[in-house]
Amino acid sequence: MASMELLKMINQAISNELQVSIQYMWQHVCWSGVKSFAVNSELKNIAIMEMKHAEIIAERLFYLGEKPTVNPSKVIVGETLKEMFEQNIKDEEKTISLYKQIIQKAKDEGDLSTAHIFNRILLEEEEHHDFFISIVEDL
Questions:
Q1: 130 and 46 in contact (C-beta within 8 Å)?
Q2: Can you give the pTM of this predicted structure?
Q3: Is there a contact between 78 and 84 (Cβ–Cβ < 8 Å)?
């Protein structure tokens, strides 16, 4: 049985995934111009991946006996491409840190399935972080 602390952390992960899926999709929809042309489709793809992460995590949380949240963390779109991607970097860093904590907590509690799920998602989050950093470096 997962601890309340782990369940709370997992629900926070869902809030964060919902937040960035909305945030990245809104950035994809709203941003236009020459510089955006190269990143729009990738933003859309990442937004969809983030929603899939929310679904996977919610399914795991439900399996563990907890009701998944429907409330996203605060969405911050940004006004310029640089603001958007700097915010996205911060959000990915926050997520990466949380997932590492969840993985460790799950392992400590003997929940290797949860640790495995978050390890898989963590790899994708690190790829998103790297993508956003590479964009900011080119701005």
A1: no
A2: 0.94
A3: yes
Other residues' Cβ atoms within 10 Å of the Cβ of residue 4:
9
CA distance 61 to 55: 10
- pLDDT band per the 50, 70, 90 thresholds, residue 125: very high
DSSP 11-80: HHHHHHHHHHHHHHHHHHHH--SHHHHHHHHHHHHHHHHHHHHHHHHHHHHHHTT-PPP-PPPPP---SS
CA distance 68 to 15: 9
CB-CB contact of 111 with 47 (8 Å): no
pLDDT at residue 33 greater than cutoff 80: no
* CB distance 16 to 94 below 8 Å: yes
Q: Spelled out in words, what is the top-level CATH class assigned to the domain 4-138?
A: mainly alpha
pLDDT beyond 90 at 34? no
CB 136 within 8 A of CB 86: yes
* Distance, CA of 25 to CA of 5 (rounded, Å): 30
User: How large is the average pLDDT for residues 85-108?
Assistant: 98
